[in-house]
Amino acid sequence: MARKPTGESVLARAVRIFEAFTPEEPVLQVSEIARRTGLHLATASRLVAELAAHGLLARDDDRRVRIGVRLWELALRASPTATLRDTAMPFMEDVHAVVGHHVQLGVLDGDEVIFLERLSAPKGVINYTRIAGRLPLHASSSGLVLLAHGPADLRDRILAAPMQAYTANTITTSARLRRALADIRKQGFAWCPGHIHEEALGVAVPVRDARGTVVAALSVIVPNTAESRAVTGILMTAARGVTRSLPPSPLIH
Amino acid sequence: MARKPTGESVLARAVRIFEAFTPEEPVLQVSEIARRTGLHLATASRLVAELAAHGLLARDDDRRVRIGVRLWELALRASPTATLRDTAMPFMEDVHAVVGHHVQLGVLDGDEVIFLERLSAPKGVINYTRIAGRLPLHASSSGLVLLAHGPADLRDRILAAPMQAYTANTITTSARLRRALADIRKQGFAWCPGHIHEEALGVAVPVRDARGTVVAALSVIVPNTAESRAVTGILMTAARGVTRSLPPSPLIH
User: Fold this and answer.
1) Between residues A76 and A46, which one has the greater pLDDT?
2) HTH iclR-type domain: which residues (chains A, B) (predicted)?
């Protein structure tokens, strides 16, 4: 990665430092942070020290660096999606109790779906999502639901862009995507057998607010077998419960 | 609030802007942000614009400002407490299914307990905690458990400091706190009837990692009645399950 011009703002550099941490590597040495961000070691070291002083990063005795609890706290306590998540949670637990496997709540962010919450069974089928994880809209059942009900310009953009194949079943052509979106609007759910992993079936339904606007996708990832047919009705029922329980004020994410 | 000297760093100002948002007021006008942070309107406006450009804040059409999904994502996806939370979650769901009411997971942060997760029943008894919410250690059952097993210097500091009373039952003297902590270490749980609210009973047990170190408190908030006796055994059993399921690497928060 090229070193950035020195005119870059402190905030931009701080964001790049936060971005250096991943679910797979939540703990980094300062030298590794410098390498990943393209910052000089002295600059990275000074910024890490300042971010740690504010609690946004945390350093242990071995000077290894992590995301700080304070950053987590600031992001969570006034989270714009907290109401949606808290309202959906009991209904997600109900689905989880009945279906098992993975239950997740996703919202649109940019050109992707981001997952706000996930309940998982220890022996659940393979699943690529995690909390705060993202997936492309064309690939996941949640993404397809959000795209089917999303703004027209977003749909045009995704239809025109290349679509990454995860398996032989992933939607990768604009013709097939257009048909899938029409089906989802007509049927009220997205049914994605083996689109991301051969053995997994993703099923998603829209969650609407009181005005009928789709604000989220509720989904399950279950084994890709015929017995999984029943999940659609369960999801639709749960999504209606979330809608009824959502406060009337508009949700923004 | 007094205006800060202009020498204050951009990061310090950004943190103060994040701190202006609360669970009760997650949406603010820029003028209100300026007022709460003590920043000049022009300074607040410029910083909000830059934070929004990075997705750390979000502005809607009415120029109202919120915490951005990107901040939430950066804090969550490499969260130092994600493993603890994800491991505890199925056991919290079990407790929630059996006990109902509120089930929560708290960890020590500074001189307070911070709640990483909470499952709530729609008709649960009154509860002051929320996700990313904090409570003083002397007042809450989770705090007492974490204090009982925490570092000696923390215990000395809390014992020497004034203790805020929430009800007539809150522990407010060092003699009573010292006795309570000894009881918790002996019995293996904290039992706090009406300590924060007259009608609520908080019960908490320690969650240990594989090496026996207490890394969290698992708690319920139930009605303050005799029938609630049974929760202690349920919590202790669930906490052992979390311990057994935690990965061997040390958890840091």
Assistant:
1) A46
2) 8-69
